[in-house]
Design goal:
This protein is of the alpha+beta class and about 120 residues long. It is about 50% helix and about 20% strand. β2 and β3 form a beta hairpin.
């Protein structure tokens, strides 16, 4: 019985640690992403268009060891995102100016996503 309680305690502690680390990872990268969003918005204001890539705003795609992806959807919409776990990510949508944990439609994003995957 003591062994089961000990194992259960270890599992609970590991879950708490993982959850708190995961939350801080997401928040830290949202903060880094917000700085990129500011650069994109500044570029948009100065040029009346969105940058075609992060390189156009002199922004490295890797920030603090995390890969950020940028998708220019159309002349006004874009997405920025980073991975959290295998196959999952957090995405910034310019139409709502919000970070979300699921992909959703925005402009013609599916066509742009396929185009970016084919170019990579």
């Amino acid at each position: 019985m003591k062994r089961i309680k000990c194992k259960l305690l270890v599992v609970v502690l590991l879950s708490v640690i993982f959850t708190s680390c995961s939350h801080s990872y997401v928040e830290r990268n949202k903060k880094a992403g917000n700085a990129v969003v500011e650069k994109i918005e500044s570029y948009k204001k100065m040029n009346n268009s969105l940058p075609n890539s992060l390189q156009e705003i002199e922004q490295n795609e890797v920030i603090n060891g995390v890969l950020f992806s940028y998708w220019k959807i159309d002349s006004v919409n874009y997405m920025l995102g980073f991975g959290t776990t295998l196959g999952e990510g957090i995405y910034y949508f310019s139409d709502t100016r919000q970070w979300e944990d699921r992909l959703r439609g925005i402009g013609n994003w599916e066509d742009k996503l396929r185009e970016k995957e084919n170019n990579d």
